[in-house]
Amino acid sequence: MTTSAAGQPLIPQPPATVAALRQAVGQIAPVALPAFTRELDQAADQSRQGSDLAPLQRFIVQWATYVYIQRQPALAADLRAWEDRAATGDADQARRAAAEIGRILDEAHAAVGRPSR
Hints:
Helices cover 71% and strands 0% of the residues. The protein is mostly helical. InterPro entries: DUF6247. Pfam families: DUF6247.
């Protein structure tokens, strides 16, 4: 991942389009590109089968949120730390971690202009 100067995002938040999100993922988290492609294929298949755009819309929101978080190294590190604490901590730590993960995801959803959960 590229580093940022003075806590600035690595890249600007891209538009919520498949092409822009793919390019952003390639820049900030290339290891996630196979998952991006696999999930895009699944969403497209579901949309075709159900004649419904909802799976593709969910895909775009999910990956716009991912990019929002990953383009900010400190925020991404916080999320990983809370995820680790949720997985390895006791019940109280797991509850606190879940609340913090929810807060981060709510912030990201709001920033990409989508309602949270």
